[in-house]
Structures are given as C-alpha cells and as structure tokens.
Amino acid sequence: MTSLRSRIIHDVAFGPSFTGEISYAKALLRSAQNSSLTIFDCCYLSAELMIN
C-alpha cells in the first residue's frame, strides 16, 4: 500500500507464489484507513474484493 502523493510505502503483503494476489490484497485492505481513497490496479478487479 503506497501513498500516491509521497510514494511512501505504508504496508506490504507477500508470501509464497502459489498464494493468489487477491489474498494479499485482502490482507492489505485491513490496514486501509476509513478516510482513504483506495485505487486498485485492473488485475485486482474482483466483486468479492470490492464488496469487502
């Protein structure tokens, strides 16, 4: 998770390559602030991810 303005990294999730990227994206969403605007890359377009 990176700030677009300052490019400061706020959080990161990684692990084995056999774990899907959506799983890591879900972990990062838990650390997003309620007052933030979250922008997803088109590779992360998932109804389950957007609803959560």
What do these coordinates show?
By secondary structure, the chain is mainly alpha-helical. It has one domain. It is built from two helices and no strands. It is globular and about 30 Å long. The two termini are about 15 Å apart. The mean pLDDT is about 75.
Secondary structure tally: strands = 0
User: Which regions are unreliable across 5 or more consecutive residues at pLDDT < 50?
Assistant: none
Helix content: 25-40%
β-strand amount: under 5%
Class by SSE composition: mainly alpha
Instruction: Write down the overall mean pLDDT.
Output: 77
SSE layout and pairing:
Layout (H helix, E strand, L loop, with lengths): L20 H9 L17 H5 L1
